[in-house]
Amino acid sequence: EVTEKLEEVVMIWIKQIRQVLVESEQIRREADDVGPSAELEHWKSRMSSFNSLLDEIKSSRVKKIISILQAARSKTLKQWKELDGRVTIAANEAKDNVRYLYILDKFFGPLANASPVMMEHIPSLMSTVFMIYCTSPYYNTSEHMTSLFLKITNQMINTCKTYLCEG
């Protein structure tokens, strides 16, 4: 009877974690002119969410329940372990992406505040993006790179618009 109650609790957790994972994998809706700093903010927020979830999963309360279910050879543990692994991967991805995007962050300010003659920043920026593409185990997908380049381009366009309107 205790095992059944604990399995019910774990199934609720599994449902909640699946919902978090589904929401995190949905396509982001962003304004057309959002700049590259938004990419860093997105991954920082995602890192915070998944780290909090990992902290909860690794809490002593959860560990005790899981160990009781292991002793009872509960079938819910297979689903639990699969989701635990997915949360760990998502947390690692977010942490890694934040680390790499912080490297790019030093270019975002000058890109936003420069005059349209921002060419001096472009070679270093592109070298850094290329380095991230070559070395990041998570951020080197077409989807992530396209999103980043779109935001960098948006920032360049916004900088030019501001320059034209002020000039």
From TrEMBL:
Q: Which domain of life is it from?
A: Eukaryota
Q: Name one GO biological process term.
A: microtubule-based movement
Q: Which residues form the Dynein heavy chain tail domain?
A: 4-165
Q: One GO cellular component from the entry? A: axonemal dynein complex
Coiled coil location = none
Q: Name one GO molecular function term.
A: dynein intermediate chain binding
This chain's protein is named DYH5 protein
Q: Which organism is it from?
A: Toxostoma redivivum
Q: What is the lineage of its organism?
A: Eukaryota, Metazoa, Chordata, Craniata, Vertebrata
